[in-house]
Design goal:
The chain contains 9 helices and no strands. The protein is mainly α and about 190 residues long.
């Protein structure tokens, strides 16, 4: 069944060609009244040319239909690749946010700031309106500002527990929003 579906146009032009040959053979005497070798040769040439034209047109139509099928399949594969790429970037963002939170818990605020800046660079590679809408709330900028402020602490003036919890809550909120952006979860 798949063979007939893939080659229907070829089957069609073979049948039409056979009908044309049969018609030409049956009505040869009526069409060519003076049967000389040259007239017979011309008649066979015309029939062969018509069959060749039919085959050429049919093959062009067949090639166009195959090209459209390949184009559709390529689009599907590209869309799948884009979903996988975005899912990979989301996963990378989540790992970097976990790393940032770990640095905050260990009071390594300079490393936490660097990790968060890596997160922002990675996050910018995620395309889509979800990220743009999310970023408009400027929560990323607020979180980075809090982390920059925390790098100016020292043993004499440490970061308060309340401020550290505020930073961690902000990062966890960002992480939750990033998890919602995962295209794999949205498709399923």
């Amino acid at each position: 069944m798949k063979f007939f579906k893939n080659h229907w146009i070829r089957i069609f032009y073979i049948i039409i060609s056979l009908v044309l040959v049969r018609f030409a053979f049956c009505y040869k005497d009526a069409i060519v009244s003076d049967i000389t070798v040259f007239n017979l040769f011309s008649y066979v040439g015309v029939v062969a040319t018509l069959i060749a034209l039919l085959i050429a047109i049919s093959e062009v139509i067949h090639s166009i239909s195959i090209s459209k099928g390949i184009q559709e399949e390529a689009k599907k594969l590209l869309e799948q690749a884009q979903v996988i790429d975005v899912a990979s970037l989301v996963s990378e963002c989540l790992v970097v946010l976990d790393e940032t939170n770990g640095h905050i818990s260990g009071e390594r605020y300079v490393l936490a700031l660097r990790s968060f800046q890596d997160f922002r660079r990675t996050c910018l590679r995620i395309s889509g309106s979800d990220f743009l809408v999310y970023n408009e709330s400027n929560i990323l900028g607020q979180a980075e500002l809090l982390l920059q402020q925390s790098t100016h602490t020292n043993a004499k003036s440490p970061l308060t527990k309340k401020k550290r919890i505020e930073i961690q809550e902000t990062i966890l909120n960002i992480k939750e929003s990033i998890e919602k952006m995962n295209p794999v979860k949205r498709r399923g």
